[in-house]
C-alpha cells in the first residue's frame, strides 16, 4: 500500500538539493584554496630577492643606496645569468656575498661616503610587491640583503627579484606555468588568496642563513 509519509515535500527536496550543491561547492573551494596556497609556496621557494637598505632617509644616504643598487644590478646580471635553478642561484648567492660586499664598499668609497656594509643571505617576510609588469604575493622569501651603515632604524629601502627575473621581469621565467600565471596573469583573486593567508600567518622575524660582517 502506498504511503505518503515516504515522499519528500517540495521544500524538503529543494533543501536537500541545496545542501548537496553547497557540499560540492565547499569541496571545490577547499581544493582551489589548497592549489593556490601550494602555488604560492612553490613561487616563494623558486624566488630569490635582492634587498638594499639605506642608512637613513637623508639625501646623501638615499643617493648612496641608489648608487649601490646600480652597481649591484650590473654585478648580479653577470653573476646569476647562468643559474638554471633556484638551488643554483641560492648557492651562487652564498658564494658571491663577498663580491657583493666589495662592490658596495667600492661604490661608497668613490662617493666619499664612509659607511660599513653588511651582506647576508636571509629568509625574511616581504609584503605584497607590485613591479611594472608583475606582482609578488606577500610571504617569506630568501633574499640577498645589503645593509648600508649601522643605524637604529633604516631609511627607505629597495628590492627586486634576483632570481629568476634578474631585476628586470620575472614573467615567463618560472618553470611552472601556474607560478607565471599567478604573478603575471589577471588573477587578482588568486593573488589575494595567497597574500592574505601569508599576511595573517607568516612569521615576521628574519632568519639569517649566511652573513658577512
Would you mind describing this structure in some detail?
- This protein is of the alpha+beta class and 213 residues long.
- The protein has six helices and seven strands; from the N terminus they run H-E-H-H-H-E-E-E-E-E-H-H-E.
- The protein has a five-stranded mixed β-sheet.
- Helix 1 packs across helix 6 and helix 2 (59-79) packs across helix 4 (97-110).
- The radius of gyration is 24 Å and the shape is elongated.
- The model has no long low-confidence stretch (mean pLDDT 84).
N-to-C order of helices and strands: HEHHHEEEEEHHE
Which sequence of strands runs across the widest sheet?
Answer: 6-1-5-2-7
Count every beta strand, where a strand is a DSSP E run of 2 or more residues.
7
Q: Which regions have little confidence, pLDDT < 50, spanning 5+ residues?
A: none
Average pLDDT number: 84
Radius of gyration: 24 Å
Helix run count? 6
Main sheet properties = 5 strands, mixed
Our estimate of the beta-strand percent is 15-25%
Helix content: 40-55%
Question: What structural class is derived from the secondary structure elements?
Answer: alpha+beta
Shape: elongated
* Straight-line N-to-C gap: 91 Å
